[in-house]
């Protein structure tokens, strides 16, 4: 059972602290502090509440790094949220979370996404219904097996105290979710993903989510520290731009978080900060066999057991 006032405040405080810790660490890594953009919904808008966006564009290492915290409420769940819980359609809601996407400039350094969130559905005279969601996933442009294993092992270890079944279950969910059905290919090498999670009760569910969020920096920073000085040229940047097109396609066509935000009247600037600063498309392009670009398709995008 959730005490919506007390428990929401506890989650909110942790999320805000998580955003600050990650933003400070990334600013130190880049050499450029992330700017702060605090915002509030205007009176009379579809949603109530506000949030804070920490953003870096054209930094020393990151071409774009965005970390958003939001805490908004509305009078009716949008279709993307009630699709798997039709019995909750029409309920009011509060949704809060931290979501980040980091786009390094160096093509040998992967893009990464992480999200942790709580949604509470409310109805007068009935107990609130809650669920958590989130996870993290890695999108390399040039694959390195050591990096993939490290990322997945950190994800596995973050979940291990809460059940041996969670990592295999959430990894499969991630592999299935971050998949471009219209391309028949994965977005990246996955990680973990979960949604509608509440089965152990509020306290244990929240503890698991905190473990995932707190593991992010250890999952990602060692990878980019190792790859940040790898030389690259125009050909590698062109391939990165091409693969970033796949990232755009997934976010706009398949991503539930993007759809939830847009359908609920969310702040477009915050929702779409996950997009890469540049992307390109080529007609019927295929990499040359035996190249590092081809290895991404043959050795990394197909589902593998990395941990």
UniProtKB/TrEMBL annotation:
Substrate binds at residues 99, 115-117, 265-267. This is Oxygen-dependent coproporphyrinogen-III oxidase. Its EC number is 1.3.3.3. Homodimer. Involved in the heme biosynthesis. Catalyzes the aerobic oxidative decarboxylation of propionate groups of rings A and B of coproporphyrinogen-III to yield the vinyl groups in protoporphyrinogen-IX. Keywords: Cytoplasm, Heme biosynthesis, Metal-binding, Oxidoreductase, Porphyrin biosynthesis. It is an enzyme of class 1 (oxidoreductase). Belongs to the aerobic coproporphyrinogen-III oxidase family. GO terms for molecular function: coproporphyrinogen oxidase activity; metal ion binding; protein homodimerization activity. Residues 247-282 are annotated as: Important for dimerization. It holds the Pfam family Coprogen_oxidas. SUPFAM superfamilies: Coproporphyrinogen III oxidase. GO terms for biological process: protoporphyrinogen IX biosynthetic process. InterPro entries: Coprogen_oxidase_aer, Coprogen_oxidase_aer_sf, Coprogen_oxidase_CS. A divalent metal cation binds at residues 103, 113, 152, 182. It comes from the Bacteria. Pathway: Porphyrin-containing compound metabolism; protoporphyrin-IX biosynthesis; protoporphyrinogen-IX from coproporphyrinogen-III (O2 route): step 1/1.
